[in-house]
Amino acid sequence: MRYDEIFAAMLKRAKELLADGTVNRVIGWKRGEFSYDVTPAVFETPEELDAGFVYDAFCGANVSKYLIRESEKPGRILCFLKPCDSFSFNQLLTEHRIRRENVYAVGIPCEGMADVKRIRAAGIDGITGIREEGERFIVSTLYGEESMDRREALAERCLCCKSKRHPVFDELIGDEGEDAPDDARFAEVARLETMTAEERFDFWRGELSRCIRCNACRNVCPACTCENCVFDNPASGISQKAAADSFEESMYHIIRAFHVAGRCTDCGECSRVCPENIPLHLLNRKFIKDIDELYGAYRAGDKADARNPLVNFTEGDAEARIVHERGKA
Amino acid sequence: MQVKEATGFVPTIVAFCCNWCSYAGADLSGTNRLSYPANVKIIRVPCSCRVNPIFFLRAFQRGADGVILCGCHPGDCHYTTGNYYTRRRMTLLFSMLDYLGIERNRTRVEWVSAAEGQKFAETMRSFAEEIAALGPNRRLADLRCRKDAEEAGITDERGSGDAV
Questions:
Q1: Each residue of A125-152: pLDDT tens digit?
Q2: What residues form DSSP beta bridges with A171?
Q3: Which residues pair with A163 in a beta bridge?
Q4: Chain A CB contacts of B90 below 8 Å
Q5: What ipTM score was computed for the predicted complex, to two decimals?
Q6: Is A155 helix (H, G, I), strand (E, B) or coil?
Q7: How many Å apart are CA A54 and CA A36, to the nearest integer?
Q8: Cβ contact (<8 Å) for B96 and A206?
Q9: What is residue A22's DSSP assignment?
Q10: Is residue B142 part of a domain?
């Protein structure tokens, strides 16, 4: 389905469900300062929906984390979930973070979301909107319209999409999707693994040293839902501000990734919101890849009754020395 | 006796030992008059499962050159299953450190029972020698926490900030 078709179907369904009293509120997306600056928003009336609700290739934001707070409020909320968001939603349900009875989840199909950073990198500036025409994106700008190959504008996480299937939903718009093959997702991790330790160290220093500790990756992550974060503790060893030295950068990012290991659904929001373009998803994917290789294939958010591999074990698990022996033939 | 490299580098090693097996194993190696390197600073924990990744990173931050975690053999945990979780957690942590280019041999997990005083001493000796050979921890050091940073030749390892 095209974005405008999905949008029309969503708007129609939202108004119906509001009218018949099934839901009291709708969480969707609204424009921010700029057209590509889309942010999740809650709408309570059909008029508000008409005025503010949008959906296009810039609506990459994952709304599932907002449902933690929203489902605590009285009444029921309607949410539209892309497959990525459905996995996060399901994982949060597994962790009992969302009141399921207060949420009406509608699964929407997704053919990938545009990454404004990649569009800009292609030399297109002054972006005012995006629409699709066949296999191309038409980006309207202050200076006229630019046509772009779809694959050049899609976010990295969409180029190696993990699934178009909804693990949980109350109803679907469009057809039920299928899982995508997994190999492409781990190609970059595998490439880093073949480097020497020195090269990897240099690579990550180059990336992590740009971190300004804005905490956007933590705040947007649908798996990072602690009321009190370990980094809010003044005794955690690192401060809540720009890193003073390389240790703080490594510590923050190792622990951030570790705390979502086994729960990360690889929705890629961390990398999307990073103002410094640090490929944070590569840290999360490393954990996913290791878990798959060592403890069997596991997909967070797929099955609500599955047990997180980090709070599970078998007697025959590999010893930690497997890491030390790796690469020594 | 401390393990010392020819260059004069004396490594600092932190050993997290579980109360029920490895700490008793360390005790046994002492009562048996087996010597193990004085570089090893033991921190007693109720169970190896008490150790979370932050403990490892904090130890490195505060000046450790190597960190080792000792617990009961799998199946012998005082709390039945604690060390099974430790095993998964530490395997993933070590793999992540390796992925970030931090020397993987600075970290280790060993299972030492209360009856293995000999194994405790040998493990600590081999680990201390390995760390001495690796040299000071530079890649995961916090400059502000190391008074000897200059002598040890530790500088800020931050890159230029350019993407690679």
A1: 999 999 988 889 999 999 999 999 999 9
A2: A106
A3: A179
A4: 320
A5: 0.92
A6: coil
A7: 11
A8: no
A9: S
A10: no
Residue B92 to residue A322, Cβ atoms within 8 A: no
Which whole number is the average pLDDT over B17-30? 96
B84 closest CB neighbour out of A206, A287, A313: A313
Distance of alpha carbon A62 from alpha carbon A291, whole angstroms: 24
In a domain, B131, yes or no: yes
Integer Cα distance of A146 and A203 in angstroms: 34
Q: Which domain holds residue B26?
A: 13-74+82-136
Residue B31 lies in a domain: yes
Assign residue B43 the CATH number of its domain.
Answer: 3.40.50
Residue of A nearest to B93 (CA): A258
* Tokens 């809540």 -> residue: A240
Chain B CB contacts of A287 below 8 Å: 92, 96
Give the gap in angstroms from C-alpha A104 to the nearest C-alpha of chain B: 36
Cβ–Cβ gap B74/A315 under 8 Å: yes
Name chain B contacts of A311, Cβ cutoff 8 Å: 85
pLDDT at B157 over 60: no
DSSP string, A220-264: H-TT---SS-GGGSTTSSS-SSS-SSHHHHHHHHHHHHHHTTTT-
Q: A321, B109: Cβ pair inside 8 Å?
A: yes
Per-residue pLDDT reduced to its tens digit, A242-276: 887 888 889 999 999 999 999 999 999 999 999 99
- Whether residues A254 and B156 touch (CB distance < 8 A) is answered with no
Q: Looking at residue B155, what is its pLDDT?
A: 64
Average pLDDT over residues A52-78: 94
Computed from CA positions of residues B29, B30, B32, B38, in that sequence, does the dihedral angle turn out positive or negative? Answer: positive
pLDDT tens-digit profile of B31-42?
A: 999 999 999 999
Q: Which amino acid appears at position A187 of this protein?
A: A
Hey, are the CB atoms on A320 and B109 less than 8 Å from each other? yes
Residue B22 covered by a domain: yes
**Biggest CA-to-CA distance, chain A:** 67
For residue A77, what is the enclosing H or E element?
A: strand A77-81
Calculate mean pLDDT across residues A193-197. 93
